[in-house]
């Protein structure tokens, strides 16, 4: 399989790029980069739960958008930027502790748009959320 990345990508570069953002504030950690995927996780703790003690659905969407946006950025040509156009998420089960891990893979990589699917799973490998994001690819001015 040919790698989809057009810019140099690594766990270290994604971690560096995310410094001093909501990503680090919520404790999101990048774990792995494969030829066609990015993987990261978020802790289920006081930063990320809602009042009933469950992982906040918005935090699931932040993890999904982080992965889809980073994936689209690194899969776009040098000099190009990406911005989100649309995201949806289906919350399938709750998480009360541990980590939730997301894996993002592209469904479509076009010249002007990307579509990425992100699956979030708990430590028992049960799907917590499935999300899809559409990204606009902006050409250099």
TrEMBL record:
Keywords: Hydrolase
Gene3D superfamilies the UniProt entry points to: Hotdog Thioesterase
One Pfam family from the record: 4HBT
GO molecular function: 1,4-dihydroxy-2-naphthoyl-CoA thioesterase activity
Domain Thioesterase intervals: 52-128
SUPFAM superfamilies referenced in this protein's UniProt entry, alphabetically: Thioesterase/thiol ester dehydrase-isomerase
Keyword Lipoprotein: no
InterPro entries: HotDog_dom_sf, PAAI_dom, Thioestr_dom
GO cellular component: cytosol
Protein name: Phenylacetic acid degradation-like protein
Organism: Hylemonella gracilis ATCC 19624
Organism lineage string: Bacteria, Pseudomonadati, Pseudomonadota, Betaproteobacteria, Burkholderiales
